[in-house]
Amino acid sequence: MNHALAVLIESILAGIALAVGCTAYVTVGDPVVGGFLFSIALFTIVTNRMSLFSGKVCLLLDEGGPKLSDLPVIWFGNLAGVAAIAYALRQTRLAPAIIPNAARSAQARSGDSSFSVLVLAICCNFLICMAVRNYRDVKDVGKYIGVILSVAVFVTCGFQHCIADMYYYCLANHWNADVLRALLITTGGNIIGGLLIPFGQRCTAALREQAPQKTEAQAPVSELLEEGVVD
Prior knowledge:
The chain is an all-alpha fold and 231 residues long. The chain has a single domain (2-213), classed as Glycerol uptake facilitator protein, CATH 1.20.1080.10. The chain has ten helices and no strands. 42% of the residues are buried. The model has no long low-confidence stretch (mean pLDDT 90).
């Protein structure tokens, strides 16, 4: 129970952080500038170890990664976080400037074909996976550059992120059957995109382990001569 509650709190905080990044994007209006400003959201999330659905999916196959049962909690926690900020912002003086931009994004996403939504969602979380794993594995300033560039590219390209889409739908108060269809497909696409790199790495590691190792007896004489095994 304590674990689930902790995950839920981390997820709500991640949703709030993402909502702030989304707000910067819809305020600016320019996709390139907005993309770079949006990256503050993921930077905040990874540095504070918050639970963002798209990022946790990327670590699902890793040893010590999130439990599969955590993902629904994270998804709904993220939704609660972005919804709280989005609906609060609708009551502020910023509303007239940011709601129209959010509405355009919401309508474009919910009105798109299922195949298009799926492809854009896969591309999105492929980049998020690059950002998360780069931040985890790189030890120098490159870890921060990787986060910023990966997020900036996915936002600029218009790829679909299920939690960011929740924010646009909430801020625009745009909910219908098409929205739910698009949101579920986006979630599925984000899962696929987030698992492509780790699944591919597991497959290649397994193939290398299965490859026969050369012994001195099997190695060509030329190789043994080079290594000084045969005089």
